[in-house]
UniProtKB/TrEMBL annotation:
Belongs to the zinc-containing alcohol dehydrogenase family. Keywords: Metal-binding, NAD, Oxidoreductase, Zinc. Its EC number is 1.1.1.306. This is S-(Hydroxymethyl)mycothiol dehydrogenase. Residues 14-362 form the Enoyl reductase (ER) domain.
Length: 364
């Protein structure tokens, strides 16, 4: 049977989004219907709207969400109706070679709901990151629901569903930042600022935020950056030298590229100490290329890593991070710039593009 709800749909490349009636099927085996309480406006949703991820229009946007499980299908035991959950886009399979080796955060067979949500006329929708949470209710695989403490506000908890988890995890999980380390983070948007918070949480002694926007740098300082570099008027060498000047001439132990462009990755590569670590968490576009001397890779040593979703395991990381937030040790609420209505998503994209917000969050 299913039920009709309102949702934000991107009908075509670059077209403004619209509010449409969405049919949400009853959950089948291994699936759950979640009543969405809050969903953050993420750059990835804008990439979907612009056709930068695929051409499988129309898209049901939204993925950074928290809400209440309304119903579950056969075979679901980990969550039940009434549970407060954060949605994730990497429901692990438990049986692929990564999962069987005890590395489920690298799962090669993550999955989503098998049934499709549709428009009123039956047109199948492609849910953003397999979630589609700019809607009053959504259908997901039950493994995409992670139960957390309901004492947390939905607009805060939902941020762990994507951007904040990506940044925190890039520092803590992928970068393995340790006590006393020096860390530089290139890009001070939502993901980069979360990486700053993660580095401080892990015990870094010095955390350097780098961006071209002084407003973003000010926020990064408020959330834990010990130093800031405005790179607006600096070339490649200038950024590298600025990092070295703040690290005794050596470079940082860990440099996190939260932008994902060839020029910022090179800054991260040369801005690290010998045998230091580079973490790429900003998402490049398919056309981007690197041209660098191979000898530099050999001569500098260290680790060059990509961070998928902060290398998180939702069942492990989400409850822990919510607990830290409720203890006052993780200021997730500082990432919420504004709460908005479903009708305001298009305007939120504009604010995000102009760097006016860390996160706009749709509140249902």
């Amino acid at each position: 049977m299913g039920q009709m709800v309102r949702g934000v749909v991107a009908a075509g490349r670059g077209a403004a989004v619209s509010i449409e009636e969405i049919n949400v099927p009853d959950p089948g085996p291994g699936e759950a219907v979640v009543q969405v309480q809050a969903c953050g406006v993420c750059h990835t949703d804008l990439h979907y709207r612009e056709g930068g991820i695929s051409d499988d229009f129309p898209f049901l946007l939204g993925h950074e969400a928290a809400g209440i499980v309304e119903s579950v299908g056969d075979g679901v035991s980990d969550v039940q109706p009434g549970d407060f959950v954060v949605l994730n886009w990497r429901a692990v399979c438990g049986s692929c070679r990564a999962c069987l080796r005890g590395r489920p955060w690298y799962c090669f067979n993550t999955h989503n709901a098998k049934q499709k949500m549709t428009l009123a006329d039956g047109t199948e929708l492609s849910p953003a990151l397999g979630i589609g949470a700019f809607a009053e209710k959504t259908l997901v695989a039950a493994g995409q629901c992670t139960k957390v403490d309901p004492a947390a506000k939905a607009e805060v908890a939902g941020l762990l569903g994507c951007g904040v988890m990506a940044g925190l995890g890039a520092a803590i999980n992928t970068g393995n930042v340790g006590r006393g380390d020096t860390v530089a983070v290139i890009g001070s948007g939502g993901v980069g600022t979360a990486a700053v918070v993660g580095a401080r949480l892990a015990g870094a002694a010095k955390v350097i935020a780098i961006d071209i926007d002084e407003r973003k740098l000010a926020t990064a300082r408020e959330l834990g950056a010990t130093h800031a570099i405005n790179s607006k008027d600096l070339d490649h060498d200038g950024v590298v030298e600025a990092i070295q000047d703040l690290t005794g001439g050596y470079g940082a132990d860990v440099v996190i590229d939260a932008v994902g462009r060839p020029e910022t990755w090179k800054q991260a590569f040369y801005g690290r100490d010998l045998a230091g670590t580079v973490v790429l968490v900003g998402v490049p576009t398919p056309d981007m290329r690197l041209d660098m001397p191979l000898l530099d890779f050999f001569g500098r040593g260290g680790s060059l890593k990509s961070s998928w979703y902060g290398d998180c395991l939702p069942s492990r990381d989400f409850p822990l991070l919510i607990d830290l937030h409720l203890q006052g040790r993780l200021p997730l609420d500082r990432f919420v710039s504004e709460t908005i209505a479903l009708e305001d998503v298009e305007a939120a994209f504009t604010k995000m593009h102009h760097g006016d917000v860390l996160r706009s969050v749709v509140l249902f």
